[in-house]
Specification:
About 40% of the residues lie in helices and about 15% in strands. By secondary structure, the protein is α/β, with parallel strands linked by helices. Strands 1-2-7-8-9-10-11-12 form an 8-stranded parallel beta barrel, surrounded by 6 helices. Strands 13-14-17-16-15 form a 5-stranded mixed beta sheet. The protein has a 3-stranded antiparallel beta sheet with strand order 4-5-6. Helix 1 links the parallel strand 1 and strand 2. It is globular, with a radius of gyration of 31 Å. The termini are far apart.
Length: about 500
């Protein structure tokens, strides 16, 4: 491969697969000899809402959704080998996502071949095949808008003439390569692969063509990969199911025993805290017809990566890994950067949620930040508010001394969002924030603090007096009822003896 820029000539790639192409599987494929790995298709609308977060504990870069889910996780090991595949039907949104991830991946790929409803219903995937104008618009926007290679993956069209017309039009957009799955959008793996179509495409364009779709019939071992390349006349080959079943298909020393492959995969899943249900799904795909074996049943019953590690006898590896990760957390927390400080552009961010119960009544972080700014003779803090459309949650950014601070977590109210931003600012500055049990900093003067506290105490005392008066009034009513010879007890509901 060319130094500094990904080449698509004479490579073997892990194909994009939903729920399979996550970080553990990609790293496993690279270990076994894959030249390039694609992530699973990630939808542009979801990715556009993500924040880029450097995860210092896992040593990864995470793209985190507003609900705190990690949509895409990558690491330095694959940085020059991983291709980010997106599902999109909008050129502008595609460019937004591409620019979000371009510093952390080797290339951008647009999915134009997935026939599944979750992709096509939004005009993405194979639905794009019937809209070549949109294909052209998306690819041109990406090619001119990012600094890394852009590719796309298609399926063949009903006629060879239509297919060749489309790929020639794609070539003119300036893409670095095109991957061709040699089946129609309505065909499935049980249908024969049209190698002749891929071969014709490879002859018709000057850019590299990556052949796809040969897992079931044509590629069973590593030696078959070169045969598949020759049969299609393609520059390169990408494998999906053959790699999912046993990633050692990429190794010229393989295939390795499935037990070893699954253990190697599980170690990566544990190391990078992969979601247990995703880990379990991938292991079940590897087990295939052995999924009802004793091991398969143990895997299916597992609910955590710890339980999965027990199924494979990796308890000690799991324990050591957890200890290492915890040690890294502790070291980072005791370091110079407090509470997981992460820079998002020019904004200092932390994952902070404002918990009202952690502060005395009428004492807030905003109050402390205001008093501190006055003490330092700074302009008072300025708060900017945004609201998320999908759930109406709020996020605030506070500016102080021309620096900006924000919590990455969203709040249900504007007030709490501002308080969370103030907490981030105070913690970055190393200034007390007024929490219960915190030593008196003197930021809020004694008179004001005691006045606030006395006011709160007086309010609480008033409530208690009202409760006492109410009980006394009830007792008096009971006594009066008894004195009048009432047949019913004063505290008995009407209608009961």
């Amino acid at each position: 491969m060319a130094a500094g820029r990904l080449s698509f000539i004479n490579i073997t790639a892990l194909a994009p697969m939903v729920r399979v192409g996550t970080l553990p599987m990609r790293l496993l494929a690279l270990d076994y000899g894959a030249d390039v790995v694609y992530c699973e298709e990630l939808i542009d609308i979801k990715m556009a809402q993500c924040h880029r977060v450097v995860n210092e504990v896992l040593e990864t870069v995470d793209f985190v959704a507003p609900d705190e889910r990690v949509m895409f996780r990558t690491c330095e090991r694959e940085k020059d080998r991983v291709i980010f595949q997106m599902g999109t039907a909008d050129p502008d949104r595609a460019l937004t996502v591409a620019r979000l991830v371009e510093k952390d991946v080797a290339a951008i790929d647009v999915n134009m071949g997935c026939p599944k409803e979750y992709s096509t219903k939004g005009g993405m995937g194979a639905a794009l095949l019937s809209d070549p104008d949109k294909i052209e618009a998306i690819l041109k926007k990406l090619v001119t808008g990012v600094s890394i290679p852009v590719t796309c993956k298609i399926r063949i069209l009903p006629s060879l003439e239509e297919t060749l017309g489309l790929v020639r039009r794609i070539e003119k957009t300036g893409v670095a390569a095109v991957a061709v799955h040699g089946r129609l959008k309505d065909e499935r793996p049980r249908h024969p692969l049209h190698c002749d179509y891929i071969q014709a495409v490879a002859r018709a364009v000057s850019i590299p063509v990556i052949a796809n779709g040969g897992s079931l019939d044509l590629v069973k071992t590593n030696a078959d990969i070169e045969e598949f390349r020759r049969a299609t006349g393609a520059s390169s080959v990408m494998l999906a199911r053959a790699a999912m079943w046993n990633a050692s298909v990429f190794s010229d020393q393989g295939p390795f025993p499935l037990e070893r492959v699954m253990e190697d995969y599980l170690k990566y899943a544990i190391r990078y805290t992969n979601h247990a249900f995703n880990t379990k799904y991938c292991l079940c795909q590897m087990l295939r017809d052995k999924v009802e074996s004793p091991l398969g049943k143990q895997v299916q019953a597992a609910q955590t990566n710890a339980e999965l590690s027990e199924a494979y006898g990796l308890q000690e590896f799991y324990r050591r890994t957890q200890e290492q990760l915890q040690a890294r957390r502790d070291a980072l927390q005791s370091g110079s950067q407090p509470d997981w400080l992460v820079m998002d552009g020019d904004v200092a961010t932390m994952a902070v949620k404002f918990e009202r119960r952690e502060y005395p009544p009428h004492i807030t972080p905003k109050m402390f930040l205001l008093e501190w700014s006055r003490k330092e003779k700074l302009e008072q803090p300025q708060y900017e508010m945004v609201q998320r459309s999908q759930d109406r949650a709020f996020q605030s950014t506070v500016t102080l001394a021309e620096k900006r601070y924000r919590s990455t977590l969203w709040e249900k109210s504007k007030k709490f969002a501002e308080q969370a931003a103030a907490v981030v600012c105070l913690r970055v500055l190393g200034v007390p924030e007024g929490r219960i049990g915190e030593e008196d900093s003197g930021l809020v003067c004694k008179r004001k603090r005691e006045g606030k506290m006395n006011g709160a105490a007086e309010e609480e005392a008033s409530k208690k007096r009202q409760a006492v008066d109410l009980r006394q009034e009830t007792d008096n009513s009971k006594a009066a009822a008894a004195a009048n010879g009432d047949r019913h007890r004063a505290d008995t509901p009407p209608g009961q003896p």
